[in-house]
From TrEMBL:
InterPro entries: DUF2834. This is DUF2834 domain-containing protein. The keyword Membrane applies. The chain crosses the membrane at residues 12-30, 55-76, 88-108, 128-146. Signal peptide: none annotated. Keywords: Membrane, Transmembrane, Transmembrane helix.
């Protein structure tokens, strides 16, 4: 078995950039999310209701939700193409942590595996998962923007 080729400097820098973005995003999002911690069981309800308080909040919330959908589609296809394991962990974590954290982490994993390209194999489970995320994001966008 041969030694893997060393990563080029540009790839290393890109991976560092993705990691830094993920850490900064975690701090930036959760420093705000924790303001809801004192609400106990009402945490999620209060948080999501506050995403609808102004037109700006609704715009940003819909923007992020639709970006998340595009990111999820990309993550699943790219994971299958490059053999990145546990793609659905990144997807599910996007909903509970922040897509601004998990997407750069996925991009970091992708960058480390990019040299092992192959045709993507999107199975039935992936198709169902993508359909569920699509329907969920569409319903959420309507809830935020219209209801």
């Amino acid at each position: 078995m041969s030694e893997p080729e060393p990563l080029p400097t540009t790839t290393k820098l890109l991976c560092v950039a993705y990691a830094v973005i993920a850490v900064v995003a975690l701090i930036a999002t959760w420093s705000q999310n924790l303001t809801y911690a004192g609400r106990g069981a009402d945490f999620a309800t209060a948080f999501w209701e506050d995403t609808k308080t102004t037109a700006a909040a609704r715009s940003i919330t819909a923007d992020i939700a639709l970006f998340l959908l595009a990111a999820v589609i990309l993550m699943v296809y790219e994971a299958r193409k490059h053999g990145i394991r546990f793609v659905w962990v990144y997807v599910i974590a996007s909903f509970f942590i922040a897509v601004s954290v998990t997407f750069p982490l996925f991009l970091l994993a992708r960058e480390l595996r990019i040299h092992r390209s192959a045709a993507p194999r999107i199975g039935a489970g992936d198709k169902v998962g993508l359909a569920l995320v699509t329907v969920g994001v569409a319903a959420f966008t309507i809830w935020v923007d219209v209801l």
